[in-house]
Design a protein that fits this description.
Elements: H1 2-34, E1 46-52, E2 55-62, E3 64-66, E4 71-72, E5 79-80, H2 85-98, H3 123-127, H4 142-145, H5 152-159, H6 176-190, H7 194-206, E6 212-213, E7 227-230, E8 233-236, E9 251-253, H8 255-266, H9 273-279, E10 283-284, E11 290-291, E12 298-302, E13 305-314, E14 317-324, E15 329-335, H10 343-361
Antiparallel strand pairs: 1-2, 1-15, 3-4, 5-9, 6-9, 7-8, 10-11, 12-13, 13-14, 14-15
Helix pairs in contact: 1-10, 2-6, 2-9, 5-6, 7-8
Length: 364
């Protein structure tokens, strides 16, 4: 028995030493990848995090959270997420479906009766970017409303009479308007404002205490300020009314809270396994062709291993997150300048973490 205890202790020591070595090597190599594009100490920066088995093994901040105040970025800073918001909108729809309050096969006309062609467009089409409706971000008139306070009904009216790009289900084409309509439907079905619904049913349940619906007026502790880059230097981001991107891009969060989000999904804290699987399944067009998007996530791969990904871009910010379920690896990058996208860096770090994890498993 004594010999068995000694062997177990030795095994634990070796595994612990291996994990520490893995973390040290990962840190050095991740730093090297990040500093290729995020090396400006006195300019806008970013926060990057790598998590394994639900726990952060790397989390670092680079650059400034506020250039004017010479405030360094910290891992706890709050960023605008941009289109990563769509993950939360999709899960909210699935939560309402699980409660029997709607069905993703329902036509839009069931909830917005006057929407043109709404009897042919389903919630599934909106979730998968296959509706064919006009993406409002591609409309020339967008500048007319960018700083106006818009209700969901006003946003729907802004683009609903535009000619369709294609028939529902005929094509996949990324579309922000569809996710605005989904937010509108969440409000109609739940009787709650979109931001309130997300806070009560997702943020609070997942313990995401630093996450919120975006605002330029509210005091948001540890806010990272957004920037554009011009030929003559950095400038503060262009103001925008967050009622315009609404449920397609108006949430804010931190790297730590986003890990709580990923863990809540993994633990089925918000949805049952059957409902959750809809978000992470590839879907098909009318002709049977499969496309690489679920509900709120791109379904791709890193080094031929399945991944779930999404990025975001909104005035002053760019974001990217990759999750590799087979190895429970989560990588996120949050940048406070729309001049510097973390997308490729995050994907490179995910590949690095995956390769290093594979090597440390040898002999275990």
């Amino acid at each position: 028995m004594k010999h068995i205890c000694i062997l177990l202790s030795a095994a634990v020591f070796i595994i612990g030493a291996t994990d520490r070595l893995y973390a040290q090597n990962l840190e050095a190599k991740a730093d090297s990848l990040i500093l290729k594009d995020f090396s400006a100490k006195n300019g806008p920066g970013a926060v990057f995090m790598i998590a394994h088995r639900g726990k952060a093994v790397y989390r670092k901040a680079f650059g400034k959270a506020n250039i004017e105040l010479d405030a360094d970025m910290t891992p706890e800073n709050v960023f605008q997420l941009g289109s990563i918001t769509k993950q939360f909108t999709a899960v909210a729809i699935l939560m309402l479906e699980e409660q029997g309050k709607l069905n993703v096969k329902d036509p839009v006309s069931k909830y917005i009766p006057d929407y043109p062609g709404g009897s042919e467009i389903t919630l599934h089409h909106l979730l998968t970017h296959t509706s064919g409706i006009k993406d409002f971000t591609k409309m020339k008139q967008l500048s007319d409303i960018a700083q106006k306070e818009m209700t969901p009904a006003m946003m729907a009216s802004f683009f609903k009479n535009e000619p369709a790009d294609f028939a529902p289900g005929e094509k996949y084409e990324y579309n922000n308007s569809g996710y605005v309509l989904l937010g509108y439907i969440i409000e109609l079905v739940s009787g709650e404002a979109y931001g309130d619904f997300i806070k009560k049913h997702i943020f609070d349940k997942a313990g995401m205490n630093q996450s919120c619906y975006a605002s330029d007026r509210k005091i948001i502790l540890k806010r990272a300020y957004g920037y554009h880059k011009k030929e003559y230097g950095y400038v503060n981001k262009t103001p925008i009314s967050f009622s315009v991107p609404f449920s397609s891009g108006s949430l804010m969060s931190t790297a730590g809270d986003m890990l709580k989000w990923q863990n809540a999904l993994n633990q089925n804290l918000l949805l049952g396994a059957k409902q959750t699987s809809k978000a992470f399944s590839r879907h098909r067009l009318n002709n049977g062709d499969e496309f690489a998007y679920g509900y709120g996530w791109h379904i791709k791969d890193v080094n031929a291993i399945a991944s779930r990904e999404h990025g975001g871009s909104i005035f002053g910010f760019k974001t990217m997150a990759v999750y590799i379920p087979e190895h429970d690896i989560y990588v996120i990058g949050l940048s406070n300048c729309d001049c510097n996208s973390p997308t490729q860096t995050v994907r490179d770090i995910a590949a690095l973490a995956l390769n290093m994890q594979d090597r440390t498993q040898v002999g275990r």
